[in-house]
Automatic annotation (TrEMBL), chain A:
This is UDP-arabinopyranose mutase. Belongs to the RGP family. Glycans are attached at residue 154. Its EC number is 5.4.99.30.
TrEMBL record, chain B:
Keywords: Cell wall biogenesis/degradation, Glycoprotein, Golgi apparatus, Isomerase. Glycans are attached at residue 149. The record marks 149, 156 as: Required for activity. InterPro entries: Nucleotide-diphossugar_trans, RGP, RGP_fam. It catalyses: UDP-beta-L-arabinofuranose = UDP-beta-L-arabinopyranose. This is UDP-arabinopyranose mutase. Probable UDP-L-arabinose mutase involved in the biosynthesis of cell wall non-cellulosic polysaccharides. GO terms for cellular component: cytosol; Golgi apparatus; plant-type cell wall. It is found in: Golgi apparatus. Belongs to the RGP family. Signal peptide: none annotated. Its main location: Golgi. It is an enzyme of class 5 (isomerase).
Length: 359, 351
């Protein structure tokens, strides 16, 4: 793993170690704007919706594309765990990737500018975030202590200054903020114009709403936990895919001593989704959330859950045991979580590393 | 809410300033501080006269005053250390406190505008905190922001804010080892955010630019035994912050950090600092796990009860590290006794 040097221009590209996963149902025109930043990388396009539609990928990009037929062919019956008619299908891309890192972005997200007017290389910032440690055990009031020009403050215990490996880098959005339907209905004109120049670790024991629009993660450290659930067609809920993955991921990261960062980089979110459609999708979630959050807040994983897969399967058991009574959906979801892990392990047979641990 | 409409709270807030030198820095703050009552806590030689710039309404206490007012209980108030500032919290009769160091000046935001730190602290204190779930757009109550998708609706009322912790441009608040290793580093990064420190998470609370709701959390703001005759210094605000956070978490109160920035002009001497912090560097390693594991009983329903219970645990669990902690635990109790004496409980709810 290449070390990060002081100057921005020497952040490693990681071009052979990172895949960009993009779910789409329309087109990939947005890639033109990202070309200077994305062209070195391999793309995994997950085409949702009608598989007979041809998705045009701009020239010059190296990519693999999967539509529903491909997903069904590759996973067979296990394809049932991959959502249809919902961007949650993107997690199929995580599963088939062979790279160490994933960056995922929505097709309505464009390059943003920082307050000086300079275009933001979101991918480079995610890489910086992922390659430097997180600090989940104690809050640093100057935010990311590993950033240029910052450090740990007085009173920060020295034994905690090594930090822990970073599993997830959660980026933010200028312009259209990621609001739920009620908020969109009440404040249709609100735009996020505030650039907050910080990256910070979300403390251990604290949950957060993980948005999948602008997200990087270390697939080797946390990949199997990034299951985006059962959404869309035939499902009673939508727009909770990334939320679900985020709560599972956070609980598992806390258990395994891994870090999650949030903040920079910003992208420019151009499209406000239809709040009436969103309300229909989110409706059940608004109520279910009230039970889900206490569930995740009180989840504990036993000591013998030493891999992400084991943690995830244990979580699936607890989902079935404790949330099954909230709605039948959670029984299905728990089963799908297991199917996901089985499919993941099939597509990613574990290798035993020199130190005896499995990958 | 624009600044001119921000509640001044001029009859509800005291500004507490510890000083050993002079108060020249107040000239720069005059436009922002003049409406408020100041409580000056004069550290060091009481025979020295500290000149307060004209036009400020203030009360000043030197060591003789502290000894006179508290009698034997004055032993809990540090001498030759800015920790003595907490005496100011105790004698105040106001609902809110803002405390600032005498080497902290008015900073400018990226647009070049002077920052009214006090008005930002007031904003922070008057709107709720959200310690139970992290909002990725930071303070949801700020103009132009809100709770994001996935934030549970039942948690959107927030909880009352007890503490507003501001930051510093220019000389950052580093410990001695960091100062020795990076003497040139300056904080140039303006982070335009206020956020709640989540429940269950400790933080290093710096007393240089700090505000709090005295009614909600005052008795927990004890800055410990530092300075003259003590084996440690520069851990006063840290100690108070760890106690405060544990108690806030227990009582369902919020602690915010971020804006406002002040301009910190003076880098203290790192060699002197290392001497002061030396024991703390090692003790910290035991203190942090102690606070992380501290639980308070259901019967501790007031800040005073929480602080007294905490002091018992300090004696029991930290006493074995060094006798200092036995003394400190006793001083924590003395502090509460002194607080209650100077602030007799009223029937208007819990204090």
């Amino acid at each position: 793993m290449a070390a990060i040097e002081a100057s921005k221009s020497s952040t490693p590209l990681l071009k052979d170690e990172l895949d960009i996963v993009i779910p789409t149902i329309r087109n990939l025109d947005f890639l033109e704007m990202w070309r200077p930043f994305f062209q070195p990388y391999h793309l995994i396009i997950v085409q949702d919706g009608d598989p007979s539609k041809k998705i045009n990928v701009p020239e010059g990009f190296d990519y693999e594309l999967y539509n529903r037929n491909d997903i069904n062919k590759i996973l067979g019956p296990k394809a049932s765990c991959i959502s249809f008619k919902d961007s949650a299908c993107r997690c199929f891309g995580y599963m088939v990737s062979k790279k160490k890192y994933i960056f995922t972005i929505d097709d309505d997200c464009f390059v943003a500018k920082d307050p000086t007017g300079k275009e933001i290389n979101a991918l480079e910032q995610h890489i910086k975030n992922l390659l430097s440690p997180s600090t989940p055990f104690f809050f640093n009031t100057l935010y990311d202590p590993y950033r240029d020009g910052a450090d740990f403050v007085r009173g920060y215990p020295f034994s905690l200054r090594e930090g822990v490996p970073t599993a997830v880098s959660h980026g933010l959005w200028l312009n259209i903020p990621d609001y739920d339907a009620p908020t969109q209905l009440v404040k249709p004109r609100e735009r996020n114009t505030r650039y907050v120049d910080a990256v910070m670790t979300i403390p251990k024991g604290t949950l957060f709403p993980m948005c999948g629009m602008n997200l990087g993660f270390n697939r080797e450290l946390i990949g199997p936990a990034m299951y985006f659930g059962l959404m869309g067609d035939g499902q009673p809920i939508g727009r909770y895919d990334d939320m679900w993955a985020g709560w599972c991921t956070k609980v598992i990261c806390d258990h395994m001593g891994l870090g999650i960062k949030t903040g920079l980089p910003y992208i420019w979110h151009s499209k406000a989704s239809n709040p009436f459609v969103n309300l229909k999708k989110e409706y059940k979630g608004i109520y279910w959330q009230e039970e889900l959050i206490p569930f995740f807040q009180s989840v504990t994983l036993p000591k013998d859950c030493t891999t992400v897969q084991k943690c995830y399967l244990e979580l699936a058991k607890q989902v079935k045991a404790k949330l099954g009574k909230v709605d039948e959906y959670f029984n299905k979801l728990a089963d799908a979580m297991v199917t996901w892990i089985e499919a993941w392990d099939e597509l990613n047979p574990s290798t035993v590393l020199a130190n005896g641990s499995t990958k």
